[in-house]
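1st attempt posting a full record on here, be nice pls
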Amino acid sequence: MCRSVRIVGAHQWAKAHFLVCADLRGRTGAAARAQIAENMAFDLDKVRQIAERVAGSSGLEVVEVEVSGAGKHRTLRVFIDRPGALPAADRPDGVTHEDCSKFSREFGTIVDVEDAFPGGSYVLEVSSPGLDRKLTKAADFERFRGHRVKLMTREPVNNNRHFEGKLESFENGKLLLDLSAARKKKMRPKEGEGLNVEIELRNVEKANLVPEI
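the predicted structure (as tokens):
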């Protein structure tokens, strides 16, 4: 699994601070703190668009963009992959350390120039999705047919929200899981229960590949 980590400074801080002060005249306490949070908010879609633009120029794809922490401890994390790459124990991903480092430099520069992540310095982490990569869109489920996955649904299906099994097919927005292929015995269907379950993609809250090791 490749990973690139860098601390990104924000020379725009003086400008951002000025705008906050201008908006906070006459406000104190909770109201002021709420306004600071609002002014320092960022557009995640814009950040993702920048990430996809940079990734596309190198033949890569963005798997996920996430933010954690606050203040000086904020982390902007981007997971990238190479389209068509299938994870395996001896070759866990399709991207290299060089890919991550190059993406980190280019992406960080553009985010800084476009002031897409205001609010001071932060940690930028760029890495491959790894063996247990997340599946978030239809293309992911089409690509990883035949692989073992685990997922949680938004609404119960057959009185259950947690499933693991082999992704047999994905058609018309619905995925079919073979539950008998689950690694853990408790996740396999009990006697008398069906071996397969059909789940609508829109009902999937989160899903991951199960490492084949």
